[in-house]
Amino acid sequence: MKALLRRDLILAIRAGGGFGLGLAFFLIVTVLVPFGVGPQSELLSRIAPGILWLGALLACLLSLDRLLALDWEDGTLDLLATSPLPLEAALSIKALAHWITTGLPLVLAAPLFGVLLSLPGPGYLWLVISLALGTPALSVIGTFGAALTVGVKRGGLLMSLLVLPLYVPTLIFGAEVARRGADGLQTTTPLLMLAGITAGVIAIMPFASAAALRVNLR
Amino acid sequence: MTLTIRDLCVARGGLPVLERLSFSLAPGQALILRGPNGSGKTTLLRTLAGLQPSLNGEIVAGEDDIAYAAHSDGLKAMLTVTENLRFWADVFGQRDIEPAMAAFSLDPLRDRLAGTLSAGQKRRLGLARMLVTGRPIWMLDEPTVSLDRDAVALFADAVRAHLGAGGSALIATHIDLGLDAKVLDVTPFRAAADARAGASDEAFL
Amino acid sequence: MPIERTRATAYIWLMSMTDETPIPKRPSGFWSYANPVKFLAFSARVLPVLWWLSGICLIVGLVWGFFFTPDDFRQGSTVKIIYLHVPSALMAINAWFMMLVASLIWIVRRHHVSALAAKAAAPVGVVMTLMALFTGAVWGQPMWGTWWAWDPRLTSFLILFLFYLGYIALWEAIEDPDTAADLTSVLCLVGSVFAVLSRYAVNFWNQGLHQGASLSLDKEENVADVFYVPLLVCIAGFVLIFIALVLYRTGTEIRLRRTRALLARETRA
């Protein structure tokens, strides 16, 4: 399992853009929003938590179609499926690698982008906490979408259509935590809900993903 | 360690391709599969490797005995030869990759990125993967594609050594490897064109 | 060891215990309709009845509701859109539920008709969802002064609509029918869990404008009797026409599969 994680991380670094692309996309979304809604800082600071969450979510989605497609094309998935490593574990590891290469940089960079959108002071901490708790769920759910559509040619668009509705609960609670945090309100309830969704998704989704992948491999 | 197949029926896209196939493969034995394109050799190997369900019949093999090599080698262009092999050795819980490197004379290529290898060199690396699985029953699908004569000889030696060590091999190939092996022509087992028993769409006929 | 192989082995092993060729048990009762031929014969018999019954129920219910019930003292004649809105909203959810049950049956018992029924129900469900959304907008405009509000119920229906779209798109995208059936079933299961989660999330996110349920088993909460009876007739009509449409569409899917199966053998021979 360690070997698979190490390999995925090395590939992400060497293939170029593994770490950088998602982050650059996040930056562009953040920069484009003021162009779209106007530069008034009080408006920006009000919508900042939501925009940052949405940007992180889209950046996550962007890199999903490479999560399994490359391993599918060169036959690695076939060989992995016949290896002693259970597919459930392999997919969990791949989701983890995806989170480390996409989710984690977003979490770390989010405060910087918060400055661009004049996020209010107390919001920074809660933004980072909510993203740190929520982005793993995005990776795991995304892995399920990738496993469903891996056999479809040009499945990227289809995958977005399937995955985005599944992101709704995570987005709602994650953005709610960030928003309440920015407004200086109680964040306990949405935070617990977000943590609960992430934990549940990590526990259960790999089985659904592996089932879908097995069907696609046969 | 013995692979036994009884009355097996395998399907491609829900349609039966091979029927009533029975054979057994004891340790030390090799079996060469032959048959025209589309006769179901790949389907048979994929079924035996556990990637797809059989329609009918029985496959008896020990747990985690079978190692499978497909048309594509699952190599990563951005990893070196050693890293590629190391990865599969780790996945299969094996330590030593040196014998595999030596058997397919990959030593001179050790630190080359797999993406810069020629087709034949890639294939050699793909076949070296079989040695690091540590599994007794090899399933090889057209292993000699894009190999030159020397490399074919290396491959034949590797198979012979594997058989000598009590392993077995099921090889779908068209060239003569010079192995002391039985040949199984799958043509007589081809399912009738209108075969329906067990097909996934049987209920609709 | 991969599951598939183990299962085949175990099956053969069980069979060899009985020491005689197993006689396949003919399913009887409900499960016998899993046979496509029997299903087609059955639906050919009941469909005409269903078309007529649903037509009668809809006409009676709608005419009664539109023309022979009093106007609401607050809402005026706008209230009458309830006769389309409530039944279509009900069926939008029930269609998804039916797909969930059919998907489960396919996963557990591998009956093709079940998978095809789920496939056939999806577009009907989409139409019901759209109808509920549209009539809701038409109703909401005079009542709340807006065509659309991000009210939990409305939002949930919009999300349900997205789930339907994804489900249908996945069916369309995959060539092999059995693979498509498997994958869409998994999606339907996972989607159901997330649909429920989304419902709660949306509730939490915004407390809404929408009134409580129009119907409930608690009599006190219900709409007045004058509206109630024609509404029930309309709901019966929607249920019947849903069943009829699904049966009809399932029949089409079965014939499509049969054509495919025959063609596959034709082209190979």
Element-level helix/strand string of chain C:
HHHHHHH
How much is the radius of gyration of chain C in Å?
23 Å
What is the number of helices of chain B?
A: 5
Average pLDDT of chain C, rounded to a whole number, is 82
Structural class of chain B: alpha/beta
Helicity range of chain C: over 70%
Number of domain units of chain C: 1
Q: Biggest interface, which chains?
A: A-C, 30 and 26 residues
What's the pLDDT, averaged over the residues of chain B? Answer: 85
The ordered string of helix (H) and strand (E) elements of chain B is EEEHEEHHHEHEE
Shape estimate of chain B: globular
Tally of DSSP β-strands of chain B:
8
Q: Strand order of the main beta sheet of chain B, please?
A: 5-6-7-3-8
CATH superfamily of the domain at 1-65 and 137-146 and 170-200 in chain B: P-loop containing nucleotide triphosphate hydrolases
Strand content of chain C is under 5%
Low-confidence stretches of chain C: 1-24
Main pleated-sheet profile of chain C: none
Q: Span between N and C termini of chain C?
A: 36 Å
Oligomer: heterotrimer
Task: Characterise this structure.
Chain A: Its main location: membrane. Chain A: Keywords: Cell inner membrane, Cell membrane, Cytochrome c-type biogenesis, Membrane, Transmembrane, Transmembrane helix, Transport. The complex is a heterotrimer of chains A (218), B (205) and C (269). With 218 residues, chain A is mostly helical. Chain A has one domain. Helices cover 83% and strands 0% of the residues of chain A. Chain A is built from 10 helices and no strands. Chain A has helices spanning 2-14, 20-37, 41-62, 65-73, 76-81, 87-116, 123-149, 156-166, 168-182, 188-217. In chain A, helix 7 (123-149) packs antiparallel against helix 9. In chain B, strand 1 (3-12) and strand 2 (15-25) form a beta hairpin. Chain B has a domain at 1-65 and 137-146 and 170-200: P-loop containing nucleotide triphosphate hydrolases (Rossmann fold, 3-Layer(aba) Sandwich), CATH 3.40.50. Chain B is globular, with a radius of gyration of 18 Å. In chain B, helix 2 packs parallel to helix 4 and helix 4 packs parallel to helix 5. Chain B is of the alpha/beta class. Chain B starts with a strand and ends in a 20-residue tail after the last strand. In chain B, the strands form 2 sheets. A 5-stranded parallel sheet of chain B has the order 5-6-7-3-8, sandwiched between helices. Chain C has 269 residues and is mainly α. Chain C has one domain (48-268). In chain C, 75% of the residues lie in helices and 0% in strands. Residues 1-24 of chain C have low confidence and may be disordered. Chain A binds chain C through residues 81-82, 144, 148-149, 151-152, 155, 158, 161-162, 164-166, 168-169, 172-173, 176, 189-190, 193, 197, 205, 208, 211-212, 215-216, 218, and chain C through 2, 159, 162-163, 165-166, 169-170, 173-174, 179, 182-183, 186-187, 189-191, 194, 197-198, 200-202, 204-205.
